[in-house]
C-alpha cells in the first residue's frame, strides 16, 4: 500500500462495495456449495471446498474491517442509506483500505469462477 491517504465516498461504500460483497457471499454460499455437493470428482470437491473456506475467511475479514468503517462514519453512511445527498469522502485506515481492495478483488475472482462454470 502506498503512503498516500486512501479515501472512498460514502456513496460508493453503500452502493458499490456492500452490494458486491453481499453478491460474493451469496455466490459462495450458492454456487460453490452446489459444486461441492454435486461433484463426483474427489479432486474437484477438495478444490472447491478449500476455495469455499478461503472465500468465507476473506469475507469475514472484510466485514470485520468494514464494521470499523461503519462505526467511524455512521452518520455519513446512514445519510446515504436514507437517500440523502451525501458525497462525503471517508478517510480509510490501512485495514479499511485493505478490506475495500480485498472486497473488489474477491468480487472479480468470484465472477471469474462463475464464468468458468
Question: Can you tell me about this structure?
Answer:
The protein has 117 residues and is mainly alpha-helical. It is built from 4 helices and 2 strands. Helix 1 runs antiparallel to helix 2, helix 1 packs across helix 4 and helix 2 packs antiparallel against helix 4.
Characteristic terms for this protein:
single chain, 117 residues, mainly alpha, two-stranded antiparallel sheet, elongated
Rounded to an integer in angstroms, the radius of gyration calculated over CA atoms is 16 Å
Q: Characterize the main sheet.
A: 2 strands, antiparallel
The number of strands is 2
Shape, principal axes of CA atoms: elongated
Show unreliable segments: none
Figure out the total of helices: 4
Question: Helix content range of the residues, please?
Answer: over 70%
The pLDDT mean sits at 88
Task: Describe the secondary-structure layout.
Layout: E1 6-9, H1 10-38, H2 42-72, H3 74-81, E2 89-92, H4 94-116
Antiparallel strand pairs: 1-2
Helix pairs in contact: 1-2, 1-3, 1-4, 2-4
Please provide a brief summary of the model.
Helix content is 78%, strand content 7%.
